[in-house]
Every structure is written in structure tokens, then in C-alpha cells.
Design a protein that fits this description.
By secondary structure, the chain is an all-alpha fold. It folds into 2 domains: 125 residues, Serine Threonine Protein Phosphatase 5, Tetratricopeptide repeat (Alpha Horseshoe), CATH 1.25.40.20; 99 residues, Ankyrin repeat-containing domain (Serine Threonine Protein Phosphatase 5, Tetratricopeptide repeat, Alpha Horseshoe). 58% of the residues lie in helices and 0% in strands. The N and C termini lie far apart (92 Å).
């Protein structure tokens, strides 16, 4: 009987200890997430130095590095990368630091993430690359970097059936900015003949929209 009492006493104490540890871990993770959100570099550095994981995520699956990326916090991103943060870690809607930086035209972070293991086979919720939304939104500098990065899938087709070139034509406004993006993609060697799910090519879409400058660029490229 005495042995049973001792056993259950130890079991109870161990259970309490485990619960306390779990609560402490949850609390420390919450504080770290808040510190990154508030761009408190010193607090984040101290936490990571003391063994906190750089790979934790919030309730939406956003990693520390994705939070820093969304806040355009370059120094925070550099700090997290120094502790091996993953530029490809995706949240619940498949955003990753690299994909988000590309989509929002954050040139500095795109370059930084390319140097820290950005993968080109990790896709967003539309099964697209970082380049495709960058073309849609007119981020010429980022388009130039990604389109000319060795091994980048410039002709990747997303779930809508669109390449980066197609996205620039269909969702752009035909202005000089989008003409420059089309020229950049052509110069980088994109395939101008890839049609969408309806078998309509980029040049046909450009003609239908009356984007004469883009039509001219695509016609010239077709004769090369």
C-alpha cells in the first residue's frame, strides 16, 4: 500500500511538472512572436541565444521570418536568418517568406532569401512561383532578378493556366511598366507561345486588350 501511495505521488508531481513546462513553453513562444511582431531586435536576439526555436509559428502558421517579412523588417529578417530561419516555411495559406517577398516586390528581401536557400519548387496557394504575382503587380526590379536567376522556372504554369508572361499581359494594364516587364521576361528567355487553358496565347490576349506596345514586343520576339 505504501508503495502505491509513493507511486501515485510521484506520478502526480511529474504530471504537474510537465504541465508547468508546457505552459512556460507556450508563454515564451507567445512572447517571442510578439517581440518579432513589434520588431524588438534585442528581445528576439536574447530569446534565440537562450535556445528558443526560430521555427515556431503563430496560430495562422506564420513563422517568425514570415512575420518579419510581412512587416518589411530587414534587420529582424537578417537576425532570424543568422539562427537558420527557413525562407521556405509556409503558413496555412501557403505563404512563405520568399514567396511573400516576391509577391510584394521587396527586392532586398528577395535577394537575401535567394542567398539563404530559397526553393523554386515551393508554390503559393495558386500553385505559382514568386515571379508570377510579381509580374501581375508590376514589380519590375524583382521580376528582373528572379527571371535572371539560374534555375528559376520562368515558364512555370500556375493553377489558372498562366505563366508569368501571361499574368503580366492579362492582369497588367498595358502601360510602360508592364511593357518593361514583358521585355524583361523575353530577354530572360521565356517561352512566349505557352497558351492558357483556353488555348489563347499571350500575344492574342495582348491584341484583344489593345496593348499595342506589348503586341509589338511579342511579335518581334516571335521572329527571333
Amino acid at each position: 500500500m505504501q508503495h502505491l501511495i509513493v507511486f501515485f505521488s510521484l506520478f502526480f508531481l511529474n504530471s504537474c511538472h510537465t504541465d508547468t513546462d508546457m505552459n512556460a513553453d507556450t508563454s515564451s513562444q507567445k512572447k517571442l512572436l510578439e517581440a518579432v511582431q513589434k520588431n524588438q531586435l534585442a528581445l528576439v536576439k536574447e530569446a534565440l541565444k537562450n535556445g528558443s526555436s526560430v521555427h515556431i509559428a503563430d496560430q495562422d502558421g506564420k513563422s517568425l521570418l514570415l512575420i518579419a517579412t510581412q512587416n518589411n523588417a530587414l534587420d529582424m529578417a537578417k537576425l532570424l536568418l543568422s539562427y537558420q530561419a527557413d525562407v521556405n516555411q509556409q503558413d496555412h495559406i501557403k505563404d512563405s517568406p520568399f514567396l511573400y517577398a516576391g509577391a510584394t516586390g521587396n527586392l532586398e528581401l528577395v535577394k537575401l532569401y535567394l542567398l539563404h536557400g530559397a526553393r523554386f519548387d515551393v508554390f503559393n496557394r495558386y500553385h505559382g512561383t514568386a515571379l508570377i504575382p510579381s509580374c501581375e503587380r508590376g514589380h519590375l526590379e524583382v521580376v528582373n532578378v528572379l527571371a535572371n536567376t539560374k534555375g528559376f522556372p520562368i515558364d512555370h504554369v500556375n493553377r489558372l493556366g498562366w505563366t508569368a508572361l501571361m499574368e503580366a499581359v492579362i492582369l497588367g494594364d498595358g502601360s510602360q511598366k508592364y511593357s518593361n516587364i514583358v521585355r524583361t521576361l523575353i530577354d530572360a528567355g521565356c517561352n512566349i507561345h505557352i497558351a492558357d487553358h483556353e488555348k489563347i496565347t499571350p500575344i492574342q490576349h495582348a491584341r484583344n486588350k489593345g496593348y499595342s506596345a506589348i503586341v509589338q514586343l511579342l511579335e518581334q520576339a516571335a521572329t527571333w
